[in-house]
Amino acid sequence: MLRYHLFNATVMLLVGLAGLPALAAAQPATTSRPTPTSDELLSRSRPTEWRRPDPRNLLVMQLPGGRVLIELAPDFTPLHAANIRALVHGHYFDGLAIVRVQDNFVTQWGDPNDDDDGDKAKRRSLGVAKRTLPPEYTRSIDPELPWTTLPDGDLYAPDVGFSEGFPVARDPQSGREWLTHCYGMVGVARNIAPDSGNGSSLYVVIGQAPRRLDRNLAIAGRVIEGMPLLSGLPRGTGPMGFYSDPAQRTLIRSVRLAADLPPAGRPAVEVLRTDSPTFAALIESKRRRHDAFYTVPAGKVDLCSIEVPTRSIPARSPATR
């Protein structure tokens, strides 16, 4: 009896396997459309999905090679944002330099004469800026701020996503959130003491995201225009990428707040809202990109591989205003 059941089961299995090609042939062929490109998605975006940075939070840094725009993040690091504004109002950064470019890590700028006492002339230009600040490495989660989560998890935090255009990590259990060290993020350099960074020396991430720095340094904002001017500089040959030859440094001609410029001279740029449908579509296009080149979609995307788009606003003639 047992042999009969085994024989019968084997026959049924073979019959079933023999029918698989016919069943497969009977199924309708599925065609996968190519994933829309970023340019295609952005071309279909609505004007309301874009925002103009607040000119009070927009730094305009002039280098010999052109302009760098940095958007401050006062909702995450308000004390540092206020201090940087005070430094800029005092023209502190004018005539300073980019002093460090460490390959695959950061570009840093500040006072080349910054020793134990610093450059006395530059210290006088601190004005009302504070010499030290409490560390602003994390903050309480603000449920009122817009939030776009990423579905694929993160190695460094329980939850990650975007808020107000910035990459953010969260820990719902502790109720804390923090800005992350993705490419283009601007941080506040400091010494060992947590309160030793006041914004007078800043750095920007130019390499693979050093997320180990998260919650150990304050992040003040993000470069939204001009990253090649900071990431394409010659690498420093001294320890930690500092320039051993002062002639290698890049002069900072000026740093101004856009709000302090005449309205006609303010940068005409827009940033895609990270709580917009187009930004959500961009995330999915990166997660599941499929076209003639990307034949195998990754199905996942990490926080620091997503760039928030920025665009210039075309000048309008007086007749169309």
Description:
The protein is of the alpha+beta class. The protein has a single domain (47-272), classed as Beta Barrel (Cyclophilin), CATH 2.40.100. The chain contains 6 helices and 17 strands. The protein has helices at 2-26, 38-43, 78-89, 120-124, 227-231, 277-287; strands spanning 50-51, 58-63, 66-72, 97-101, 106-110, 139-140, 148-149, 159-163, 166-171, 176-179, 185-188, 202-205, 219-225, 250-251, 254-257, 269-272, 310-312. The strands form 3 sheets. A 9-stranded antiparallel beta sheet has the order 14-4-5-12-11-13-3-2-15. Strands 6-10-9-8-7 form a 5-stranded antiparallel beta sheet, with no helix packed on it. The longest helix has 25 residues, at 2-26. It is globular. The termini are far apart. The model is unreliable at 1-31 and 317-321 (pLDDT under 50).
Q: Mean pLDDT, nearest integer?
A: 87
Global outline: globular
Strand order of the largest sheet: 14-4-5-12-11-13-3-2-15
Total beta strands: 17
Which percent bin holds the helix content?
10-25%
Rg over CA atoms, rounded to whole Å, is: 26 Å
Beta-strand share of residues: 15-25%
Termini gap: 92 Å
The CATH topology comes to Cyclophilin
What is the overall number of helices?
6
Q: What is the name of the CATH superfamily?
A: Cyclophilin-like
Q: Element order, helices and strands?
A: HHEEEHEEHEEEEEEEEHEEEHE
